[in-house]
Amino acid sequence: MKPERRKTRQIQVGGIPIGGNAPIVVQSMTTTDTCDIHGTIEQIHQLERAGCEIVRVAVPTEEAIHALPKIKAATHIPMIADIHFDYRLALLATEIVDCIRINPGNIGSRTKLREVVKAAEDRAIPIRVGVNAGSLERELLQKYGYPTAEAMVESAITHVKVIEDFGFTNMKVSLKASDVHLAVDAYRQFSEASDYPLHLGITEAGTSITGTVKSSVGLGLLLADGIGDTLRISLAADPCEEIRIGFEILKALELRHRGINVIACPTCGRLEIDVIQIANNLERRLAHIKEPITVSVLGCVVNGIGEGKEADIGIAGGQGVGILFKEGNLVRKVKAADLEEVLVEEVEALASSRRKKSVQTKNGHHSTINEAHASSL
Length: 377
Ligand code: SF4
Fold this sequence. Notes:
The protein has 377 residues and is an alpha/beta fold. The protein contains 13 helices and 15 strands. An eight-stranded parallel beta sheet has the order 8-7-6-5-4-3-10-9. The chain has a five-stranded mixed beta sheet with strand order 11-12-13-14-15. The chain has a two-stranded antiparallel sheet with strand order 1-2. α10 (275-285) links the parallel β11 and β12.
């Protein structure tokens, strides 16, 4: 059953709503040197094609600040500047980006924080208060002994209150840890105490496999509780993978339906076609499709169409000749060697007709990004 979302207040990051009833937003972070303008633009374009809805870039120096306008002008999704230690960089970034991520605990004195908050207010952009178990304030570590969920929540609530005292509430909050239990406990406790939208993440989760498992377990627990308004999967891998995993987690919980959902049989001794290769090829070849379509690949027709009944479209292998089916009904027989090609063409056609229908039902005044966003609810 689809989890019921906990009600949070809503903010906007460059026109993308976060919190409230808005779809859970999938974001990522560039891995390029931000001063490498060309490389960073190229990576953001790749992320956009992968479905990334908001991108975060590290801004560690003034040189990186100077790179931001060109990067912003050449890309299409909202941009968040990630800033530590130097409040002047945060001030400068507010002039350019759609949101800043700071850890108020390391940005400097209260006066400096007040200046940053004022700059964000003047530009009407939100702030992500990013608390991390690895960089908690010394007083909290002394009080709790080590990074606990309670310490992280106290840190987040203290920062939020200080910023609220400046009259600013345009915030979202993250409480990241690389320990799954710690992160889950911290997010759960914070969501009991506050209705600010939450950015979920298991930090330094690991490589593709370990990071995906840790993130899926941690974020899965939270999302199943209805907690979380935006997320980033942190992987030591190509950031486009982070986007794919993010959407797969949301799809598994029926919280978002974006793009192709490939169902493949686990294969067995009755296998008539190379299901594993075809399923992998389909995920790669159809990755550009945003419309939600469930595609089934079955190795034989023994349980064939019945097993694929939930799919919009699918194939089942046979000796030399397989079948193409739609919504559980046989459409036609296809030479086994042509099954993958025929399926790709059929899915492309189905996606195109759904795209046209969805555009017709809109008033035609949305931006491309917002259309993509709406079509993937
Ligand atoms: S669809 Fe056929 S090949 Fe695939 S697991 Fe079922 S019986 Fe085996």
